[in-house]
Amino acid sequence: MTTIDEPGAAAALPLIDISHFRDPAADRAAFLAGLRHAAHEVGFFYVVGHGVPDEITTGIFAVAKEFFALPVEERLAIENIHSPQFRGYTRTGYEYTGGTPDWREQIDIGPEREPVAPGGPAWQRLIGPNQWPAALPGLRETTLAWQAEALRVSREVLRALAAALGQDEGYFDAWFDEEASTHVKIVRYPGRPSAEQDQGVGAHQDYGYLALLQQDAVGGLQVRAADGSWLDATPVPGSFVVNIGEMLEIATRGYLKATHHRVVSPPTGVERFSVPFFLGPRLDAVVAPLELPAELAAGARGVSQDADNPLHAAFGENALVGWLRSHPEVAERWWSDVLAERG
Ligand SMILES: O=C(O)CCC(=O)C(=O)O
Ligand SMILES: [Fe+2]
């Protein structure tokens, strides 16, 4: 990790100015080629030129700091164990990646909906309300304002990706309803509990189309390169980090890759804040491979075959498998019938 000792370290990931996508004076072909390269070769890039007002990005970190500074009883009042939809607060060490606890605490927030009547496919039980902290009423409004901007920017990036893949830029819109599958996480990484325990979050892929991340200046996010080495996603002020999720890997037969990434815990005594946003298709979507232009199809590497993480083209199922695996206590309380059925 270079980010703390060397705050000026050069960024290893490509940087995309998304304002060029709509700028009539910009060279569209060059923009799309740059985006295609970033998404195909690395699967991770910085996005600038997004137009998100500073008060939105500073506001979400301010409210995050306030929330995580609340007495633990007030945080636990919205613990996710109360939510069949895995919404609400997760204590440090209660989320698992690769079977190991992640050293972070967080709030998970999804689309605010009425629960669906029982009887349908299992993933329908992911639909339901959020839990908002009574002790910090402003968090709801600040989060919803941030979420709206994150949705706007990530949908713009998805349109640009569709164009970069030789599709109509609205190609992916068919997989949304009026409320796309969105998921906001507000995260605090405490410093590592000991020198050896440095899993902030273990290596994983994200399951939707795209993730868009606001990170503070501490650093620790790392991206797996094709040769297996880890690159630092060094914080770039004013940027979001965008990465490709599993649904885009499936849709492109691996022309785009859902790149593995992880977070190395900050040193003891240092805390890090981040706010990831995940954009997925509707929960009932079954993502079909798109028709790539021949020159791109030749570069499609196939969908990853990982016995520990088989990818499902049915998004609701893909999302559900991820939730059940990462939050075993919530799964045991609310999903024991589904777990039993699946063995
Ligand atoms: O906090 C970060 O930098 C990344 C978090 C992440 O990858 C995730 O929650 O899926
Ligand atoms: Fe992630």
Automatic annotation (TrEMBL):
Q: Classify the source by domain of life.
A: Bacteria
| Keywords, sorted A to Z | Antibiotic biosynthesis, Iron, Metal-binding, Oxidoreductase
Residue span, Fe2OG dioxygenase domain: 180-281
Q: In which pathway does it act?
A: Antibiotic biosynthesis
In the record, which residues are listed under signal peptide?
none
Protein family (similarity comment)? Belongs to the iron/ascorbate-dependent oxidoreductase family.
- What's the protein name? Iron/ascorbate-dependent oxidoreductase
